[in-house]
Design goal:
Blueprint lengths: L1 H71 L17 H49 L5 H32 L8 E4 H18 L4 E4 L4 E4 L1 H18 L4 E8 L2 E7 L32 H11 L3 E6 L4 E8 L4
Parallel strand pairs: 2-4
Antiparallel strand pairs: 1-3, 4-5, 5-7, 6-7
Helix pairs in contact: 2-3, 3-6, 4-5, 5-6
Length: about 325
């Protein structure tokens, strides 16, 4: 019995001593690991931060290049564009989108520059004539008849300036999306009859006639704007065409068409594609008395009402028509 107890005691002692030894080693290993972490952890964190900064800087380098180029782009050099990296990623797509936006802005700038240049040219001609007429009127020895002729010419040029200013205002309002419309229910034939009356005397003096065909039709529109658009077309027909000027209106599906035609030579073939552009004239004649805004305003008014305008040669003259919806929002 004593032998057994002694052997058991020795076994327990040895096992306990072994466990104490293993625990001491584990504690020592844990201390070594803690010391290693305390020493290498900050170093690893610094290295990881530097690596992350380098990766981010490399990724954002194309963005910085675009920012630097964008800082140099101005209205004086609208053709400059942002550099686009060949990575086909989000940054590259951003660069492509921004360049497309710059293309649109560049076109708008050129559009406005052309508008200002054309407007300046149009204003210069009547102002120069006015100055000449006033100088002649103020010259010594002018007879009453000569003074009256000078003042008549000055009055005509003043009217032209007023029409030009109104046309430019209409175009400018449209480009800002602010063309004012006073919509009301109007009887279209009655409105057109009023327009024709204004041109009847002028047509008679030129030995021409203006006819109106079509029954009563009601439409919701701005009466003054419709009169302005139709009046511009009739003015062009009397200015450039010949023979009778015919005005007709009829329902066409969900719209009403107002067609104005003449029996003249028609539009020059090279003029038709740009007939509704601002300051465009057949043959580009600058001294025909027109401002080149008539048809541009016609299309502007038609589109403001939710409609459209077109021009064509009919074989026996020119024809311009407006398509207006029955109900305009």
């Amino acid at each position: 019995m004593a032998l057994v107890l002694g052997a058991t005691g020795v076994f327990v002692y040895l096992r306990f001593a072994s466990e104490l030894s293993n625990a001491a080693e584990r504690n020592e290993a844990l201390r070594d690991l803690l010391e290693l972490l305390l020493l290498s952890g900050p170093v690893a964190l610094i290295l990881a931060s530097l690596a992350a900064y380098g990766v981010a800087a490399a990724a954002l380098r194309p963005v910085e290049a675009m920012r630097a180029r964008a800082a140099t782009i101005s209205a004086a050099e609208p053709d400059e564009r942002l550099p686009v990296p060949a990575t086909h990623d989000e940054v590259a797509r951003l660069g492509v989108t921004l360049n497309e936006m710059l293309d649109r802005l560049g076109e708008a700038i050129e559009h406005e520059r052309a508008f200002v240049a054309d407007a300046s040219h149009e204003l210069r001609t009547p102002l120069t004539i006015l100055r000449t007429e006033f100088d002649l009127a103020l010259a010594e020895g002018r007879s009453p008849a000569e003074l009256r002729a000078a003042l008549t010419s000055a009055a005509e040029e003043t009217d032209r300036l007023i029409q030009l200013a109104e046309g430019l205002l209409t175009i400018a309002q449209t480009e800002r999306g602010e063309l004012p419309l006073r919509l009301e229910r109007i009887e279209l034939r009655e409105t057109l009859e009023g327009v024709l009356q204004r041109f009847a005397r002028r047509a008679e003096e030129e030995g021409r006639t203006i006819s109106l065909r079509g029954g009563p039709l009601e439409i919701r529109a701005d009466r003054l704007r419709i009169e302005q658009a139709v009046g511009n077309v009739i003015d062009n027909a009397l200015r450039y065409g010949s023979g009778e000027v015919s005005v007709s209106l009829a329902a066409a599906g969900e719209a009403i068409e107002v067609r104005i035609g003449d029996h003249g030579p028609g539009f020059p073939s090279d003029f038709l594609p740009r007939a509704f552009e601002r300051f465009s004239r057949p043959g580009g004649a600058p001294s025909d008395g027109g401002s080149g805004l008539g048809l541009a305003i016609v299309r502007t008014i038609a589109r403001a009402h939710g409609g459209e305008s077109q021009a064509a040669n009919t074989g026996g003259g020119a024809e311009v028509w407006l398509s207006l919806p029955f109900i305009c929002a």
